[in-house]
Amino acid sequence: EAGVTQFPSHSVIEKGQTVTLRCDPISGHDNLYWYRRVMGKEIKFLLHFVKESKQDESGMPNNRFLAERTGGTYSTLKVQPAELEDSGVYFCASSQDKQFFLHFGNGTRLTVT
Amino acid sequence: AQSVSQHNHHVILSEAASLELGCNYSYGGTVNLFWYVQYPGQHLQLLLKYFSGDPLVKGIKGFEAEFIKSKFSFNLRKPSVQWSDTAEYFCAVQRGSTLGRLYFGRGTQLTVWP
Protein backbone atom coordinates (compact mmCIF):
# COMPACT_ATOMS: atom_id res chain seq x y z
CA GLU A 1 0.00 0.00 0.00
CA ALA A 2 1.09 3.56 -0.59
CA GLY A 3 2.32 5.34 2.51
CA VAL A 4 1.48 8.74 3.90
CA THR A 5 2.50 11.40 1.40
CA GLN A 6 3.38 14.96 2.25
CA PHE A 7 3.96 17.88 -0.07
CA PRO A 8 6.14 19.84 -0.40
CA SER A 9 9.17 18.18 1.15
CA HIS A 10 10.81 21.56 1.73
CA SER A 11 9.51 25.10 1.80
CA VAL A 12 11.40 28.31 2.33
CA ILE A 13 9.29 31.43 2.78
CA GLU A 14 9.70 34.90 4.16
CA LYS A 15 8.16 36.09 7.39
CA GLY A 16 4.64 37.29 6.75
CA GLN A 17 4.00 35.02 3.79
CA THR A 18 1.51 32.18 3.64
CA VAL A 19 2.34 28.50 3.24
CA THR A 20 0.05 25.52 2.77
CA LEU A 21 1.22 22.02 3.53
CA ARG A 22 -0.59 19.00 2.20
CA CYS A 23 -0.93 15.47 3.54
CA ASP A 24 -2.42 12.44 1.81
CA PRO A 25 -3.04 9.67 4.35
CA ILE A 26 -3.09 5.98 3.65
CA SER A 27 -6.30 5.11 1.85
CA GLY A 28 -9.01 4.07 4.27
CA HIS A 29 -7.41 5.64 7.32
CA ASP A 30 -10.01 7.74 9.10
CA ASN A 31 -7.55 9.18 11.62
CA LEU A 32 -5.16 11.87 10.46
CA TYR A 33 -2.70 13.72 12.69
CA TRP A 34 -0.40 16.69 12.32
CA TYR A 35 2.75 16.99 14.39
CA ARG A 36 5.61 19.47 14.41
CA ARG A 37 9.22 19.29 15.44
CA VAL A 38 11.02 22.52 16.13
CA MET A 39 14.79 22.09 15.90
CA GLY A 40 16.27 20.33 18.89
CA LYS A 41 12.96 19.71 20.57
CA GLU A 42 10.47 16.90 20.76
CA ILE A 43 7.87 16.09 18.14
CA LYS A 44 4.70 17.81 19.32
CA PHE A 45 1.10 17.06 18.54
CA LEU A 46 -0.85 19.72 16.67
CA LEU A 47 -4.21 18.18 15.91
CA HIS A 48 -6.22 15.06 15.11
CA PHE A 49 -8.93 14.54 12.50
CA VAL A 50 -11.41 11.70 12.45
CA LYS A 51 -12.64 11.72 8.90
CA GLU A 52 -13.42 15.39 8.24
CA SER A 53 -14.00 16.37 11.87
CA LYS A 54 -11.44 17.88 14.21
CA GLN A 55 -11.28 15.49 17.15
CA ASP A 56 -8.60 17.34 19.07
CA GLU A 57 -6.93 20.60 18.09
CA SER A 58 -5.47 21.41 21.47
CA GLY A 59 -1.91 21.41 20.14
CA MET A 60 -2.39 24.14 17.55
CA PRO A 61 -0.06 26.99 18.56
CA ASN A 62 -2.29 29.92 17.65
CA ASN A 63 -4.87 31.14 15.17
CA ARG A 64 -2.30 31.63 12.42
CA PHE A 65 -2.55 27.88 11.86
CA LEU A 66 -5.57 26.46 10.04
CA ALA A 67 -6.04 22.78 9.27
CA GLU A 68 -8.71 21.35 7.04
CA ARG A 69 -9.71 17.93 5.83
CA THR A 70 -12.56 18.44 3.43
CA GLY A 71 -14.22 15.20 2.40
CA GLY A 72 -12.24 13.23 4.92
CA THR A 73 -9.41 12.42 2.55
CA TYR A 74 -6.34 14.62 2.26
CA SER A 75 -5.60 17.41 4.71
CA THR A 76 -4.00 20.83 4.45
CA LEU A 77 -2.27 22.88 7.08
CA LYS A 78 -2.03 26.57 6.34
CA VAL A 79 0.19 29.01 8.18
CA GLN A 80 -0.79 32.64 7.65
CA PRO A 81 1.13 34.82 8.23
CA ALA A 82 4.25 32.78 8.91
CA GLU A 83 6.60 33.80 11.71
CA LEU A 84 10.24 32.84 12.31
CA GLU A 85 9.30 30.50 15.16
CA ASP A 86 7.13 28.44 12.81
CA SER A 87 10.24 26.93 11.25
CA GLY A 88 10.53 23.21 11.78
CA VAL A 89 9.51 19.87 10.35
CA TYR A 90 5.79 19.23 10.04
CA PHE A 91 4.80 15.59 10.12
CA CYS A 92 1.53 14.05 9.10
CA ALA A 93 0.43 10.61 10.27
CA SER A 94 -2.58 8.40 9.77
CA SER A 95 -4.06 5.33 11.40
CA GLN A 96 -7.00 3.00 10.89
CA ASP A 97 -8.12 3.26 14.46
CA LYS A 98 -7.10 5.36 17.45
CA GLN A 99 -5.49 2.39 19.10
CA PHE A 100 -3.37 1.35 16.16
CA PHE A 101 0.09 2.65 15.58
CA LEU A 102 0.52 5.72 13.44
CA HIS A 103 2.04 5.68 9.97
CA PHE A 104 4.09 8.79 9.35
CA GLY A 105 4.94 10.73 6.23
CA ASN A 106 8.41 12.03 5.40
CA GLY A 107 7.58 15.45 6.76
CA THR A 108 7.74 18.95 5.32
CA ARG A 109 10.70 21.03 6.39
CA LEU A 110 9.51 24.62 6.69
CA THR A 111 12.02 27.44 6.93
CA VAL A 112 10.77 30.95 7.61
CA THR A 113 13.38 33.65 6.97
CA ALA B 1 4.90 18.92 33.58
CA GLN B 2 4.06 15.45 32.36
CA SER B 3 6.50 14.27 29.75
CA VAL B 4 8.50 11.60 28.00
CA SER B 5 12.22 11.67 28.76
CA GLN B 6 14.95 10.19 26.66
CA HIS B 7 18.15 10.33 28.61
CA ASN B 8 20.68 10.39 25.82
CA HIS B 9 20.59 12.92 23.01
CA HIS B 10 23.49 11.46 21.06
CA VAL B 11 25.01 8.00 21.39
CA ILE B 12 28.10 6.93 19.46
CA LEU B 13 29.00 3.24 19.26
CA SER B 14 31.21 0.93 17.29
CA GLU B 15 29.71 -1.94 15.35
CA ALA B 16 28.93 -5.00 17.48
CA ALA B 17 28.60 -2.94 20.65
CA SER B 18 25.47 -3.35 22.73
CA LEU B 19 22.87 -0.62 22.84
CA GLU B 20 20.47 0.55 25.50
CA LEU B 21 18.45 3.74 25.09
CA GLY B 22 16.53 4.94 28.08
CA CYS B 23 12.97 6.19 28.06
CA ASN B 24 10.89 7.28 31.04
CA TYR B 25 7.43 8.78 31.08
CA SER B 26 5.48 10.53 33.77
CA TYR B 27 1.87 9.77 32.81
CA GLY B 28 -0.32 7.72 35.11
CA GLY B 29 -2.97 5.25 34.09
CA THR B 30 -3.06 3.04 31.05
CA VAL B 31 -0.45 3.72 28.42
CA ASN B 32 0.64 2.23 25.12
CA LEU B 33 4.35 2.55 24.42
CA PHE B 34 6.25 2.84 21.17
CA TRP B 35 9.69 3.22 19.75
CA TYR B 36 9.93 4.85 16.34
CA VAL B 37 13.05 5.19 14.23
CA GLN B 38 13.93 7.69 11.53
CA TYR B 39 16.74 6.67 9.19
CA PRO B 40 18.45 9.47 7.29
CA GLY B 41 16.14 10.85 4.62
CA GLN B 42 13.28 8.55 5.52
CA HIS B 43 10.00 8.75 7.39
CA LEU B 44 9.41 7.74 10.97
CA GLN B 45 8.94 3.99 11.16
CA LEU B 46 7.57 1.86 13.95
CA LEU B 47 10.29 -0.20 15.59
CA LEU B 48 8.17 -1.89 18.24
CA LYS B 49 5.17 -1.35 20.46
CA TYR B 50 3.75 -2.42 23.80
CA PHE B 51 0.02 -2.49 24.47
CA SER B 52 -0.32 -5.23 27.11
CA GLY B 53 0.92 -8.69 28.05
CA ASP B 54 4.56 -9.73 28.09
CA PRO B 55 6.54 -6.64 29.10
CA LEU B 56 9.47 -7.72 26.95
CA VAL B 57 8.60 -6.91 23.38
CA LYS B 58 10.56 -7.71 20.28
CA GLY B 59 10.62 -5.50 17.24
CA ILE B 60 12.17 -5.38 13.84
CA LYS B 61 15.89 -5.63 13.11
CA GLY B 62 16.77 -7.35 16.38
CA PHE B 63 15.54 -4.59 18.68
CA GLU B 64 13.67 -5.26 21.89
CA ALA B 65 12.26 -3.16 24.70
CA GLU B 66 11.23 -3.85 28.26
CA PHE B 67 8.29 -2.17 29.96
CA ILE B 68 8.86 -1.76 33.69
CA LYS B 69 5.64 -0.33 35.07
CA SER B 70 7.03 0.45 38.52
CA LYS B 71 9.78 2.55 36.97
CA PHE B 72 7.62 4.14 34.25
CA SER B 73 10.31 3.02 31.81
CA PHE B 74 10.44 1.51 28.35
CA ASN B 75 14.09 1.09 27.45
CA LEU B 76 15.20 0.01 24.01
CA ARG B 77 17.97 -2.57 23.59
CA LYS B 78 19.94 -4.32 20.91
CA PRO B 79 22.74 -6.76 21.73
CA SER B 80 24.93 -5.93 18.72
CA VAL B 81 24.47 -2.81 16.62
CA GLN B 82 25.31 -2.44 12.95
CA TRP B 83 26.36 0.57 10.90
CA SER B 84 22.89 0.51 9.32
CA ASP B 85 21.32 1.21 12.73
CA THR B 86 22.57 4.80 12.49
CA ALA B 87 19.35 6.79 12.88
CA GLU B 88 17.33 8.88 15.29
CA TYR B 89 15.22 6.95 17.79
CA PHE B 90 12.06 8.28 19.39
CA CYS B 91 10.19 6.95 22.38
CA ALA B 92 6.46 7.74 22.37
CA VAL B 93 3.56 7.25 24.74
CA GLN B 94 -0.11 6.94 23.94
CA ARG B 95 -2.30 7.68 26.95
CA GLY B 96 -5.49 5.81 27.62
CA SER B 97 -7.33 9.08 28.09
CA THR B 98 -6.30 10.45 24.69
CA LEU B 99 -6.00 7.38 22.50
CA GLY B 100 -4.37 8.10 19.17
CA ARG B 101 -2.35 11.12 20.20
CA LEU B 102 1.32 10.38 20.80
CA TYR B 103 3.60 12.15 23.28
CA PHE B 104 7.20 11.97 22.11
CA GLY B 105 10.57 12.22 23.75
CA ARG B 106 13.23 14.50 22.25
CA GLY B 107 14.85 11.69 20.33
CA THR B 108 18.27 10.03 20.52
CA GLN B 109 20.65 10.25 17.60
CA LEU B 110 22.57 6.97 17.32
CA THR B 111 25.76 6.95 15.28
CA VAL B 112 27.42 3.59 14.67
CA TRP B 113 30.98 3.55 13.35
CA PRO B 114 31.96 0.64 11.12
Q: How would you describe this structure to a colleague?
A:
The complex is a heterodimer of chains A (113) and B (114). Chain A has 113 residues and is an all-beta fold. Helix content of chain A is 0%, strand content 50%. Chain A is globular. Chain B is mostly beta strands and 114 residues long. Helices cover 0% and strands 53% of the residues of chain B. Chains A and B meet through strand 4, strand 5 and strand 9 of A and strand 5, strand 6 and strand 11 of B.
Number of helices of chain B: 0
What's the SSE pattern of chain B?
Answer: EEEEEEEEEEEE
Amino- and carboxy-terminal Cα gap of chain B: 40 Å
Which structural class matches the secondary elements of chain A? Answer: mainly beta
Nearest-integer average pLDDT of chain A? 94
Shape of chain B: globular
The percentage of residues in β strands of chain B lies in: over 45%
Main interface by residue count: A-B, 25 and 23 residues
Instruction: Please report the number of helical segments of chain A.
Output: 0
Class of secondary structure makeup of chain B: mainly beta
Helix content of chain A: under 10%
Low-confidence stretches of chain B are none
Task: List the keywords.
heterodimer, A: about 110 residues, mainly beta, seven-stranded mixed beta sheet, four-stranded antiparallel beta sheet, about 0% helix, globular, B: about 110 residues, six-stranded mixed beta sheet, about 55% strand
